[in-house]
Design brief:
It is built from 1 helix and 11 strands. The protein has about 160 residues and is mainly beta. It is globular.
């Protein structure tokens, strides 16, 4: 087979590589964990946040995200933002995140939920990746890879702050 014909046969597979490099998802039992990411932080910042494009329970029974940990931080908490009676946005630490059967939850920056990293060992730099372990009530534990990135439309130097 000549060289140009081999290249033509490989071209469709080569075109898929960039798309596959951008998407990363994980499964823990019936739970789909789609694209864990964190925003970059600045030197001296000791808190950061992890987001998930989607957390979906494909199962027939409810589950809960009970805990998370990473070597990059001393602790991970679940934070939820809600309007109070005076219409002021308040952030609260929650003991777990409920995942009803068949439900999908988006943990996006600027949204209702995120995982707060406390006691960062060093800044989160754009382009790096780190491990995060999630523990579910029924689906068990699953280690995922968090990509540190700036979401589209985010200005340089913007980081999650409390």
């Amino acid at each position: 087979m000549n060289r140009s014909r081999r290249l033509c046969l490989r071209l469709p597979a080569l075109l898929l590589v960039p798309a596959l490099a951008q998407a990363h998802g994980f499964r823990a039992g019936d739970i789909e964990i789609d694209h864990p990411y964190a925003l970059p932080t600045v030197p001296g910042q000791t808190q950061g946040a992890v987001y998930l494009r989607r957390l979906r329970n494909h199962g027939r029974r409810a589950d809960r995200l009970l805990a998370a940990h990473t070597p990059r931080a001393q602790a991970v908490e679940f934070h939820r933002s809600q309007l109070d009676a005076q219409q002021v946005m308040r952030m609260r630490t929650e003991p777990h995140i409920e995942l009803p059967a068949g439900a999908e939850l988006r943990l996006r920056h600027g949204g209702e939920w995120h995982l707060m990293l406390l006691g960062l060992q060093r800044p989160l730099r754009e382009g790096e990746r780190f491990a995060l372990t999630l523990r579910f009530e029924h689906a068990g534990e699953r280690e995922v890879v968090v990509w540190v990135q700036r979401p589209r439309g985010t200005e340089a130097g913007t980081a999650h702050r409390h």
